[in-house]
Each structure stands twice: as C-alpha cells, then as structure tokens.
Amino acid sequence: MKAICIFCGANYNGDLVLKQSIDQLAEVMVSRNLSLVYGGGKVGVMGLIADAVLNRGGKAIGVIPQFLMDKEVGHTGLTELHIVESMHQRKQMMNDLSDGVITLPGGLGTLEEFFEVLTWLQLGLHNHPIGLLNVNGFYDLLLQQLDLMVEQRFMKKVNRDLIITSADAIELVNLMDNLKPEPEEVWFKDKNIT
Ligand code: AMP
C-alpha cells in the first residue's frame, strides 16, 4: 500500500485509548511511507489523525466538498487539499487516491463511507483491503450484526470476512499490507427461495 484512506468521526469523545490508537496508526503509517487520504477537516478524530501524521513528517491529503469547508473547518496545513463539489465526488476521489481503507470510531458519516467502499469491493469495483480499527471493542456490536446477516443468509461469509479487524494499529496495517481481497458474488446460487 502507498496511501491509506481513513474514515473517522467529525467528533472526538476525549477517549485517551482512542487518542493513543490514532497516534500509533500515524506512527506506523509515517514509518512505512504511507500517505493519509481523508475528509480534509480539522475537527474531531479527522483533525487528530491529520495532525498526528503531519507532526511526524508524513503526507496528509484532504478531500472536502465546498459546503463542508466551514462546518468541518478545512485543515489549512495539509500537504494537499482537494475541494470538490459533492459528497459523492469526495468519496470517489478518496478511493481513487488511496489503495487501502481504515475506519476508526465515528458516527453516521463514518459508517456510510465504510459500508459504501465495502459494497464497492463486494461488487468488484476496486480491490483495496478494508480494515476496521476496533478500538476498545467500539465496533463489536456492528460486527455481531454482520455475523447475523451471514447466519440469516443475507451475506456470504467470504464477503463478511473481507473486513480486516484489529484493535491494534500495527497489527491491522500488517494484516492489510500486500493483501488482495477476493470477494464472491453477492448473490447466493440457490437464491430462488419463494
Ligand atoms: P461522522 O462519522 O458522522 O462524524 O462523520 C464523519 C465524516 O463523514 C464527516 O467528514 C462527514 O462529512 C462524512 N460523511 C460522509 N458521508 C456522509 C453522510 N452521508 N452523512 C454524514 N456525514 C457523511
């Protein structure tokens, strides 16, 4: 991998374990010359990861729609800041500029972004490894829901297993590096249950 796209909250809840994980992730990215691609904001976890990478001498590339420049306070100290017109353009460009994805704790926006790139992977539209940094078990319940979808035959286990999960940033990057995810078709062969 050369650049990792990070999806994360526009808020930060003050959790020190999360802060440590963000710093650890920045550390491993900079030491391996992996650029950060992210939403371009200065607020919340977004701002923390961008500053953590920049303070260590790394490269941080932001992609932000004009209408969010004020709300999320576009980061002015980035290596590159791309201003786009829409949320869709933003997500597409973030995916085009990176070759791996890591999702950190966040809210609705984070989940929306995570699931969209995951569904793009499942449909074969890209082949970037997708990781979930499960800090302090933050995403345990979400993963349980996905397991239920597999159990209830709304998702194949192979596709559920496309999500690389770890609570540890270094382990997560190690698991993702050189990984070529192999999704299966979404549709079950015997889907015609009536
Ligand atoms: P959140 O996880 O809600 O704090 O949002 C984190 C980031 O996701 C912010 O940069 C939002 O701009 C972005 N985002 C992307 N898609 C959406 C969406 N559909 N709704 C809300 N936020 C979004």
What fraction of the residues are assigned to beta strands by DSSP? 15-25%
Number of strands: 7
What is the top-level CATH class? Alpha Beta
Shape: globular
CATH architecture: 3-Layer(aba) Sandwich
Give a list of the ligands. Answer: adenosine monophosphate
Number of discrete domains: 1
Q: How far is it from the N-terminal to the C-terminal residue, by CA?
A: 44 Å
Counting DSSP H or I runs of 4 or more residues, the number of helices is 8
What's the overall average pLDDT, rounded? 95
Examine the coordinates and then state which fold CATH places here, giving the name of the CATH topology: Rossmann fold
Q: In sequence order, what are the helices and strands, one letter per element?
A: EHEHEHEHEHEHHEH
Sheet bearing the most strands, described? Answer: 7 strands, parallel
Low-confidence parts lasting 5 or more residues at pLDDT below 50? none
Characterize the structure shown.
- It is built from eight helices and seven strands, in the order E-H-E-H-E-H-E-H-E-H-E-H-H-E-H.
- It has about 190 residues and is α/β, with parallel strands linked by helices.
- It has one domain (about 5-175): Rossmann fold.
- Strands 4-3-2-1-5-6-7 form a seven-stranded parallel β-sheet.
- Helix 1 (about 15-30) packs across helix 2.
- The longest helix is centred in the first third of the chain and has 16 residues, at about 15-30.
- The protein is globular.
- The N and C termini lie far apart (about 45 Å).
- About 40% of the residues are buried.
- Bound molecules: adenosine monophosphate.
- Adenosine monophosphate binds near residues 9, 68, 87, 107 and 110.
- GO terms for molecular function: AMP nucleosidase activity.
- One of its GO terms (biological process) is cytokinin biosynthetic process.
- Keywords: Cytokinin biosynthesis, Hydrolase.
- It catalyses: AMP + H2O = D-ribose 5-phosphate + adenine.
- Its EC number is 3.2.2.n1.
